């Protein structure tokens, strides 16, 4: 009986320590990747300023051929909205809305993943030698949730590879066209 009580006490100490440490972890998470595309900004901008256009290069849509996509609002720019529903957990369900758009420079979006939380994403396009430097970024506030804060340590590994694949797809699409 003392052994069981000792194990439970040790387990409780570990859990309390993990929760306490979680509050020392950052609540803000950001992930970004960039690539140089051999094209001017005006050739790339339409592919990031429209949710419909992202179908051609999205790193997620190929994971589930049965994903259901619904578009709302204008076909490009502020208010252009994508709703997606998938049974594949790597695709999930959510909403993405363009909330700001500066022609040939930047697009900001708001993401709602339902119970998984809210986030923002952006595309920055900057002229560079040989074309355009395209940066794709993601930002979220994990709040006071200790589990989310621990998970925040893994966001770069989870999202970063997808952003790299998406940017490679975008590069191939723009440069090949």
Automatic annotation (TrEMBL):
Q: Organism's domain of life?
A: Bacteria
**UniProt KW Manganese keyword:** no
Q: Which residues cross the membrane?
A: 7-25
**Keyword vocabulary terms for this entry:** Membrane, Transmembrane, Transmembrane helix
Pfam families named among the record's database cross-references: Polyketide_cyc2
InterPro entries the UniProt entry points to? Polyketide_cyclase/dehydratase, START-like_dom_sf
Q: What is this protein called?
A: Polyketide cyclase
